[in-house]
Amino acid sequence: MNTPKTAARRRAITVRGLAVLIGATALTGCVQIETPDKPIEINLNINIRQEVVYRLDGDAKKLIEQNSEIF
Amino acid sequence: MTGNDMMRFKMWKPTGLALAAIAATAAVALAVPSAMAQRDPAYAAARAAGQIGEQPDGYLGFASTPTPAIRALVQDLNIKRKAAYTERAQATGSTVEQFAFTSGCNLIANTKPGEKYQAPDGRWLTRDGSPPVRNASCP
Questions:
Q1: How far is B85 from B103, CA to CA, in rounded Å?
Q2: Residues B89 and B135 placed together within one structural domain of the fold
Q3: Full domain range(s) for residue A18
Q4: What is the ipTM of this complex?
Q5: Distance CA B58, CA B101 (A)
């Protein structure tokens, strides 16, 4: 009578332990996502700007060449 | 086609050709001097003397306190530059600032030794034999 009760209690403890572990993992996951949020945003801005500059470079060179009196 | 229309057609054809010829001549006459045009001597002198220089934003700036004549000269050139940047920005689907900045990257790269340019931190530097200090976004 006593043995099955202990087994059930043990199982309950294991389940609770697992839930705590999963919860802790989920928490660390959340923190990890939030921390690099700012640097990623800055990097994207630089990339977009550089991409635009590279796209316009040929046109800018042509403009300078064709209007040498103002440059 | 009525006689009247015929007459109009006959009269129009040579006129059209003549107009095309005039337009072509005008286009050549306009294109050649603009491509060959040189800097105004006062501008060239102020540049060579290091009184004015290229800024990272694509416009001219004062490396030292300018005389009223130099200030007026730079303002005039910067207005013309802005008009040119605006036209090209519209044609390339970019903003005036983006096109001006890209031009600034090139204009600083094109400076000759002895000429002044502004570094991204705002300091006015004199170009020497080494590559100029430019914004990290420059190609």
A1: 8
A2: yes
A3: 1-35
A4: 0.73
A5: 5
